[in-house]
Amino acid sequence: MSKRSIRVGIDVGGTHTKAVALDNDTQEIVGEAIVMTTHDHELGVAAGVIECFENCLTKNNIAPEDVVFIAHSTTQATNALLEGDVAKVGILGMAGGGLEGWLAKKQSKIGDIDLGTGRKIETCHTFLKNKDINAANVDREIQKLQDEGAEVIVASQAFGVDGIEDELLVKQEAEKKGLLVSVASEISKLYGLTRRTRTAAINGSILPKMMNTANCTEMAVRKAGIDVPLMIMRGDGGVMDITEMKKRPVLTMLSGPAASVMGALMYLRASNGIYFEVGGTSTNIGVIKNGRPAVEYSVVGGHRTYVNSLDVIVLGVAGGSMVRASDHKLVDVGPRSAHIGGLSYAVYTPEEEIVDPQLEFFSPKEGDPDDYVRVKLANGKRVTLTNSCAANILGYVKEGDYSRGNVESARKAMKPLADYLGVSVEECARQILQKAFEKIEPVINDFAEKYKIERDQISLVGCGGGASALLPYSAEAMKMNYSIPTHAEVISSIGVALAMIRDVVERVIPNPTTEDIAAIKKEAAALAIKNGAVPDTIEVQVEIDAQTSKVTAIALGSNEVQTTDLKLRCDETEAKRLAAESMRTDPSEVETLLTSDIFYIFGHKVGNKQQVRLVDHRGFIKVQCGDATAGACKAKDWEAKTTELWNEMLGYKNEMVQTPDIFLCIGGKVLDFSNTLSLEQLTTIMRSEFLDADPEEEVLLISSRTEIQ
Q: By 3-state DSSP, what share of the chain in percent is helix, strand and coil, each rounded to 5?
C-alpha cells in the first residue's frame, strides 16, 4: 500500500482534548479521537495531548511514518496566568548613563504584575549601566535576583532592539546557573521599554510550566516514532516549532480561539465574517476580513503587551448558559452554565424522565444571584434550561446537528417556566434566545464598525459544539447569512492541523524606504524558515502604521512544498457560483471581470456600485469588496496601473480624503495593501514585491472604495 501523508491537529479545550487526522492531499478527515483534558495530571494537559494523539493513530491505523505534520493548541499559557500558576521573575535592566539611565532604571522596574484575577506575577529588579556590562558584573546581578527568590531572569535593555548582544550575555550567564531566561528583544523589536519589559516578564513567568509540558509532549511524540517537528499553535493563528515555543511561550495565549478561526477559514472558505466558537459556558467572537483573522496586542490583567493574538471578545453566554428569572420576568441568560451548576440539560434528558416538572430557583455558586432556574423531576433528579433547549424547541437545531437533543423533553421541562412567565413554551424559548442575542448583537456591530466591514458582506460563521444554539437565531435577527461546518465540534482541531507557520517582525521606522521594506520582509521570512517553513511557500505581508511609524512584516509558510491536487481545482462555473452566493445574487447576474491560471475576479453591479469577489482555484474567496474595480497589467507596468486604479476609487467625504484599499495578485499570492494613507506610501511598500519579478508576468489588481455608507 502506498504511503499516506497525514496531518494531525490536537486542540486542548477546557473540558475535552480532541485530535483530528487529515489526509494531506484531500484534506478529508481520516481519524478522530477525544479524551478528557487532564488539568490535574502530574504532566498537566500534556498527558491528554499524548493520550489523544496515540488514540488517534492506533484507532485509525495510522502509521507513525505517515505523519508529515503534527501540531497542538494549548490552554496552558492562558490558564497559568488566570490561575496565577507563575514563577517569580527577576529583571535585569540595562541602559546608558545620565538621564537615559535614570529613566530606563525606572521604566524597567515594573513591579508586580496584577493578573486581574486577584493573583499576580511577582518581580524583583536590578540594574546595570551599559559601561559596566561584562560577564562578572552580570553574574553578580543575577545572583542578587536569585537571592530575592527569582526563578526566571528577564534581560531588558533600553534600545536593546537596536543591538541584542548585551541581553544575550545575560542569557548566557543565567543559563550557566541553570536558570530559564526571557530575552525582551527576542520577543518584540518595538521600542517602549516598560511594555517590552512587561511582555518579557509575563513570558518568563510561565516558562517553567510551559517548558515541562513541552518537553513531556515532545518526548512522547518522538517515542511514538514521529520524526517531523512538533508545532504549537500561536495566539495569532499560526504555528511555531516547539523549540521556539520554549523561548516565547507567551505567544501561545489564546491559541484555542486561533485554532477555531483557522478551521473556519479552511473549511468554510470564510472571507468576511464574524466567527463564533460556542462552547458550553462561553463564546469567543472574532473577525475574519478578506480571509485573514483580525489580530491585536494581548491584554493581561489590564496591561497591554507586545504579544500578537486574535482580537477576540469572550462572552459568558453559550450553548449551556442557564436561565435566570424573577418577579415573573426573564432576567438574563448566563453567565453560569449547566456544567458549572452540576446539572444536565433538559434537552438531553430522556423524555420518560420528564415527569411532574417543578420550577426551582437556586444559586449555582456561593455569591451568585439566587434567581437561576432549574427543574425538579418526579424521580428527584434536577435538570436545567439552556440556550440549547430553547434552540431545539424553536427548530433552529436540525437533525444530525451536534447540539440536537430531545425536543419533547425540552418542551415538557420548559412548561413550568413558561407558566411562571405567563407565555407559551415557544414564546418562552424565544425570550431566552433573545436575551442571549442582546449580548451578542453589540459585539457584532462593534466589530463591523472597528474593521469597516459592510453589513451586507458579513456572514456569521459557527464553530464549536454549541454553535447552532446561538447562531441561527442571531443571524435571523440581524438578517445575515450564517454557516456551521459539518465538523463544527472539532473545527479547532482541524484548524490546528491546517495552520501555517507564522512569524512577525515589527520595527519603528520613520518614513520607510523600499529597501527598509525589503529588509524587514527578509527578516520575517528568515524567522519563518527557522521555524520550519519551506522558503518557496512563504508569503510576507507588510503593514505600516503611519501614526506610530510601526512597520509590521507577517510571514506565513508551510512546512512542506505544497502541490495542487487537480481534484480540488475549482472551475470558473463553480467559482462564479461561490461568488454569487457571497454576493447574495444569482450567478446569471455575476460578470467575470478577469481570470488567470490561479484566480478569478467577478463583479456584480448594484446601482452605481460594483461588488467584487476574488476567488482562487480552490474555491476560496480571498477578497470581497462592496464597491471596487479591477485591472490587469504586466509586472513592468504595475505602478501606472496602480495609480490609475487608486485615483479611480479615491473618495472624499466631509472634506476628508478616503483612500482606497488595494489588493495585488502576483505569483499565486494575494497581497493586501489596505489602510495605506497615500499613493506614495503604497508604491513604496508595493515596489518591494516587484524587485525580483519577471517584467512580463501578468498581475491582477483590485481597488476598493473604503467609504462606509
A: 40, 30, 30
pTM of the model: 0.73
What one-letter code names the amino acid at 677?
Answer: L
Q: Where are the alpha helices (DSSP H) in 294-386?
A: 338-341
Do the Cβ atoms of 310 and 351 come closer than 8 Å?
no
Residues with Cβ < 8 Å from 463, sequence gap 6 or more?
260, 261, 263, 264, 275, 276, 277, 278, 484, 485, 488, 491, 492
pLDDT tens track for 193-252: 999 999 999 999 988 888 877 887 888 788 878 888 888 888 888 888 888 888 888 888
Whole-angstrom distance, CA of residue 653 vs CA of residue 622: 28
Q: How many CB atoms lie within 10 A of CB 191?
A: 17
Give residues with Cβ within 8 angstroms of 477, minimum separation 6.
Answer: 434, 437, 441
Which of residues 656 and 658 earns the better pLDDT score? 658
Angstrom distance (rounded) from CA 226 to CA 67: 7
Q: What is the DSSP string of 65-110?
A: GGEEEEEE--SHHHHHHHHT----EEEEEEE-SHHHHHHHHHHH--
* Bond before 335 cis per omega within 30 degrees: yes
Question: Among the ranges 320-329, 516-525, 529-538, which has the highest mean pLDDT value?
Answer: 320-329
End-to-end CA distance of the chain: 59
Tell me the pLDDT band of 262, cut-offs 50, 70 and 90: confident
Q: Count the Cβ atoms, other than its own, within 10 Å of residue 708.
A: 13
DSSP helix/strand/coil, 457 = helix
Which grid coordinates are listed for 171? 542569557
DSSP summary character for residue 331: E
φ, ψ (nearest 5 deg) of residue 96: -75, -170
Count CB-CB contacts under 10 A for residue 550: 15
Give CA angle at 660 (659, 663), nearest 5°.
140
Residue 345, Cβ neighbours under 10 Å: how many?
Answer: 28
- Residue 297 DSSP SS3: strand
Q: How far apart are CA 30 and CA 201, in angstroms?
A: 42
Q: What is the pLDDT of residues 391-407, one digit of tens each?
A: 999 999 988 888 899 99
